Amino acid sequence: MLTELRKQLPAEAVVTDSDVVEGYRRDSADLVAAGTPLALLRPSNTTEVQTIMAWASATGTIVVPRGAGTGLSGGATAIDGCVIVSMERMTIIRNFDPTNGTVTVEAGVINADVGRAVADRGLFYPPDPGSFEVSTIGGNLATNAGGMRCVKYGVTRNSVLGLEVVLADGRLLRTGGKTIKNVAGLDLTQLFVGSEGVLGIITAATLRLRPTPVATATFVASFADLEAGGEALNAIFASGATPSMLEIMDNATINAVENHQRMDLDRNAALLILGQTDGSDAERQADEIVDVCEKHGAELAMATSDPQEGEMLMRPRRLAGWATMEQSPTVIEDVGVPRTRLPELLGKIAKISADTGLSIATVGHAGDGNVHPMLQLPDLSDASRARAMEAADQICAAALELDGTITGEHGIGELKRHWLPNQLDEVSLDVQASVKRSLDPSGILNPGRGF
Ligand SMILES: Cc1cc2nc3c(=O)[nH]c(=O)nc-3n(C[C@H](O)[C@H](O)[C@H](O)COP(=O)(O)OP(=O)(O)OC[C@H]3O[C@@H](n4cnc5c(N)ncnc54)[C@H](O)[C@@H]3O)c2cc1C
């Protein structure tokens, strides 16, 4: 089958060297088993992606789209006999329009590179997943990635105006455009955001930029007990403050970061609340949040308007995922609840950790009610994996009991598929299946993933 494809693509776009392919078989979801792909395909432009999809459609070959492989739900993990279509060579910034605040980039552009490309013109691209230095815009769009700034600026879907997508049969679909308002036809842009590679391959996107805030302030508060920290969070929500980041780290996360790099964090603190405010009244807002934390029992609380000091204070949070993953095999869970119910969720997670005997380090985007309980496995044996699955199941159940969601930003992928019917009803699943069938009738795009 590959012989025909090789005739249509440059030699470097079709890789079958098993040593190279091995590096692309998995994403960052340790619990998902990887299959053996037929080949790794590395297109360098949209036409090559169209050639690949037309060939895959004609031959019935399964296609797994891939960005940087930082996904945490197994959506980019290889399936037996598939081709992995890596977007890593599509890294052109096609158009930057600072006056209209838009940038059009290819899907393989790294998130942080968008920020670097537009910073000189006083603009920034808000979505900032913890993986922003390595993950791709295509992967961010396909998972509707979140991040720390979402509490004020929204998730990836709030920063995309238009897409270029190659459909299952190789046709090219263009959606949206450069305008902020656009209601011509159904909103196909948003249909593809969060579609986890099952509806088409995103090859380029027009993104919406925002003006860099005139000032930023950073706050941090530590609490000796979880309950007081939870009450402080609810008091912050109730105060009407509009932080641009509002994050939490629990004791296990604090210790993982401190083990990774000494930062003089209080290893005994039960909860750290940290975040930023931005805009002309950033300093005043950060001071108000510190006041609220002090009134609710913070052992230590402070704010700074110095950008460098602020970055230093936020650094533990940025390192949390990587530091925990360095300690032991880690399953990074992802659930969301209405944010006022976060303290209840934290209590339930602590109980699940005690019941299963699994160390769980919880970090999260408190402002969105979205947390990542990080399950720390002693090893990757079948018994440890089973224990992790059990804890993950209990965490999803806890989130649903609190009117929440089984995934806030990492997606369903393969890992959470068995949980989806517990959250979505039959009609919803049926409508989603109809959309899939109409765009990918042979089911070649990332089957068994997402909805
Ligand atoms: C340490 C760490 C921290 C993280 N922090 C966050 C966080 O704060 N917020 C958050 O939301 N996520 C976070 N993630 C998860 C992950 O980084 C995001 O899901 C990210 O958007 C995945 O991008 P990627 O380029 O690595 O995509 P991949 O992992 O390669 O793919 C993810 C999914 O998108 C599909 N896909 C990829 N590219 C395309 C394309 N061009 N067209 C169609 N489908 C495509 C794949 O098939 C797969 O289903 C974190 C991960 C790690 C390891």
Notes on the protein architecture:
This protein is of the alpha+beta class and 451 residues long. The protein has four domains: 2-86, Uridine Diphospho-n-acetylenolpyruvylglucosamine Reductase, domain 2 (2-Layer Sandwich); 93-211, Uridine Diphospho-n-acetylenolpyruvylglucosamine Reductase, domain 3 (2-Layer Sandwich), CATH 3.30.465; 213-322, 2-Layer Sandwich (Alpha-Beta Plaits), CATH 3.30.70; 328-441, Alpha-Beta Plaits, CATH 3.30.70. It is 36% helix and 21% strand. It has 15 helices and 19 strands. It has helices at 2-8, 18-22, 46-59, 111-118, 137-143, 150-153, 188-192, 226-238, 251-260, 282-295, 307-327, 342-356, 382-401, 420-423, 426-439; strands spanning 14-15, 39-41, 63-66, 83-86, 93-97, 102-106, 123-124, 160-166, 172-176, 201-208, 210-211, 216-223, 245-250, 271-278, 300-304, 330-332, 335-336, 359-365, 370-376. The strands form four sheets. Strands 12, 13, 14, 15, 16, 17, 18 and 19 form an eight-stranded antiparallel beta sheet that branches. A hairpin with a 4-residue loop joins strand 5 (93-97) and strand 6 (102-106). The longest helix is centred in the C-terminal third of the chain and has 21 residues, at 307-327. The radius of gyration is 22 Å and the shape is globular. Residues 27-28, 64-72, 75-76, 87, 107, 129-131, 135-136, 138-140, 142-143, 145-147, 196-197, 201-202, 321-322, 409-410, 413, 446, 449 line the site of flavin-adenine dinucleotide.
